[in-house]
Hints:
- The chain is an alpha/beta fold.
- It has two domains: 6-257, Type I PLP-dependent aspartate aminotransferase-like (Major domain) (Aspartate Aminotransferase, domain 2, 3-Layer(aba) Sandwich); 260-352, Aspartate Aminotransferase, domain 1 (Alpha-Beta Complex).
- The chain is built from twelve helices and eleven strands.
- The protein has helices at 6-9, 12-15, 23-26, 59-69, 82-93, 110-117, 135-141, 164-173, 227-236, 244-280, 303-312, 337-352; strands at residues 76-79, 100-103, 121-124, 146-152, 177-181, 203-208, 221-224, 285-288, 295-300, 318-319, 329-333.
- The strands form two sheets. A seven-stranded mixed sheet has the order 1-7-6-5-4-2-3, sandwiched between helices. Strands 8-9-11-10 form a four-stranded antiparallel sheet.
- Strand 8 and strand 9 (295-300) form a beta hairpin.
- The model has no long low-confidence stretch (mean pLDDT 97).
- The protein binds pyridoxal-5'-phosphate.
- Residues 81-83, 108, 152, 156, 181, 183, 208, 210, 216, 221 line the site of pyridoxal-5'-phosphate (PLP).
Amino acid sequence: MKPFSLENLLRENIKNIRPYSTARDEYSGVALVNLDANENPFGSINGSANHRYPDPYQSPLKQVIAKIKDVPANQIFLGNGSDEGIDLIFKAFCNPGVDEAIICPPTYGMYSVSADINDVRCVSISLTADFQLQTEKILHAVNERTKLIWICSPNNPSGNLIKRTDIEHILQNFSGMVIVDEAYIDFADEPSWTRSLAQFPNLIVLQTFSKAWGLANIRLGMMFASREVIAVINKIKLPYNINGVVQTLAQEILEQHAATKDIFVRDILSERTWLVEQLSQVKTVQKIYPSDANFVLVKISDAHALYLYLVANGIIVRDRSKIELCENCLRITVGTHQENELLIEKILKFAQA
Ligand SMILES: Cc1ncc(COP(=O)(O)O)c(C=O)c1O
């Protein structure tokens, strides 16, 4: 195995790129008069303070996130959801039509969609029947064009954490980038991989404010990696990728309400326990997969028909019955108690019909 070298791994054009320099890059202090960015000097049309371009690097917000996550601000990238981070990772490392990435289905669909958009070939090495990595098969599939290995832990749609020792094995034996997507880590009982960033220069960790934090609408995702990787991602992102309204709002929320996230997590986990208990008593339920996330994957007779029945009754779950290793499975997000009760009532009705 070649030793890890960011220089060798990056696309040649990205390595040499001169990023667009915004007016805010060139002068970021507080001036008497700002005539450098072609903004409207009179203000916004509704009198709100939205007429100035926002901070391209979201510095004050990153300071708050750095404290919460215990990761230095210069090792954090913020994106329009973690989906933006996923796309930028392909852009930074994979030459279109040449390079490859490994994904481990069933998993989050955006890795392969983003690969397709960027014209990157995805090699699929399925998870095992209990949704763990086939580490040796993955490493065997690596060739000189393989730049990325995508791991989702806890995994969507199965809900389980991927074994730490397996992820470590991949990190140690692959000299490309290993991305651990931790969108659901707040619901899990294990520490984040952010703790291992200093140990593995080829590690990228993704997290999001869309799940436990209850902020899906504001579209704010996090990427954590070495300073060098984050510097590259910053070079290729769109200049003002996080708008100022979101920056201010997120900073306020995180400064004032961070503790509420733990209360949400506690309540969602207790509802998950209730939901699993109820589902386990439904005679058509064949298996409830162990979950470290805010959803459960359930194998149930005639999953697609049940899905349609639930839709007809105004309840939308995710039909995963057609995807690999998930035959007859529905992915059910843990709702409020009232929502979960209604769901169970309808599932029981369907089972009795
Ligand atoms: C595993 C995983 N990663 C990333 C995302 C996207 O998160 P975001 O809302 O931050 O784009 C999702 C959304 O469902 C997800 O399941």
